[in-house]
Here is the input.
Amino acid sequence: MKGMKKWLVGGVLTVLLLFFLVVPFLVGLGLERGYPVMLERAQAQAEGRYALEGRFSRGLLSSQSKTIVRFAPPGPEGSFLTLRQSWLHGPFAVPEWLEGRFPFPPVIALVRNAVEAGAGSPGGGPLAEVLLRVNLDGSLDLEADVPAFELPGRGLSSAGATAQGSFHGGIRGGRGQLALAEIELQLGASRIDLAPTTVRVHGVSNEAGSRVDGTFDLGALRVARASGLRIGLLPSFGTFEASRAPNELDLSALETEVGEIEIARGDSSAPIIVRGGRLRLRARTTAGQLVRMDLSFSLDSLESGEQAYGPGRVRLQLRGVDLLAVSRLRDALAQLQVSSAGADPEARDRAETRLLHEWIPVLMASSPELELERLELEGPGGKVEAGGRLKVDGRDPAAFEGEITAMEAIEARGYLLVPAPLLHGWLDGFLAGVLEAEAGALPPEELAAMTVFLRDMTVDRLLDEGMLRPSGDRYRVEMRFEQGVFIVNGKPLGPGGLSGLLSGG
Here is the structure.
């Protein structure tokens, strides 16, 4: 019995020695060998964007490393990041005990990271602190804390952020949460303020494909421009997802609900207020091509001054857009803007026109198509309805070399149902502006009487010409664009277009 007891005591002491000395030593050896490999792999993926240098110092229960990331131009000269890491060897990360922390469950390693911007970098100083747990089962747990910071040169300030994440099987699965404090951003003439926001993400990746989904709580958002335009959104929430699988189209989806949106202009006109907005977006893509995107938006009410509309909804489809070509054109325009800085404005405009002329056949090669499946909006005098389709045949690049052949490549058709009171109101606003421009200042009562007279005459003319067709208490308009000709209710629209008809042409 005594021999067995001694054997048990000896076994327990051996296990404890293994855990507290041998295992941490082996972990340190593994980290020492793995650090150069990790550095080499990261450098191989840099592709000229940055350069890495670092050193690793191994201890018995903990190790230290310092990695410097030096950025290549066009970043600021001399800009770099410093990553300081303290690797606390498992399984119990004994150095943590001296700080009053007892990591549990056991870990392979506990890594404390401090990210600092170099003196030559914007916002030099501490940027983030990250705690990483390398668990015995191979999973990773991450906690990050970004302190409040300000980048005056870039017009960005934040009250900080926190993040938590858990990753399993390397990066084959995980979940996490990002919490952002208040953010202020100045972009040229625009200022953006975002209240605290939280994003939650879950992802999985395996041989069958990958998928990411999550939810977000968006804080109040305010956008203000120097011109006086202001946009405000009340706190909103939503969901998102993205997936990719072999031999299938990539899928992205977004759904969000906004309690209220307010759009105010710089003049004295009343703001536009949208209440009860709901947005749903679903897109399928492949190899830089947007195969199909479905978008729907509905609202409970739309108010502007004393005018109130709603409920309303709109459904759109977009197909055949070359996303890669759009991205390349955006880069080409940005490069042109940099290269032509300080040049004559007319010369710069001509250069942009030539560039767009070169890119139009490329953008149209996939024959983009836009379809308005349905638009409905209740108004004071009834419901507005509309639908239509626009398609560009881009199979022949030569068609876009001339204006006439380019117009022939465009095909469109649609319809509009508008209540009589609403159409009369639109015409009153248009004709009042024409009268003021042509007749000068008139007494209000004379202007109103002449506007009503011209409106009735215009409606009669449009009915006689067939440009309007009565449909109950609404007017119906059917439109087509074929072979470069605009056709309304079966009749070609002549020179001057609709504006000429409205103004008596």
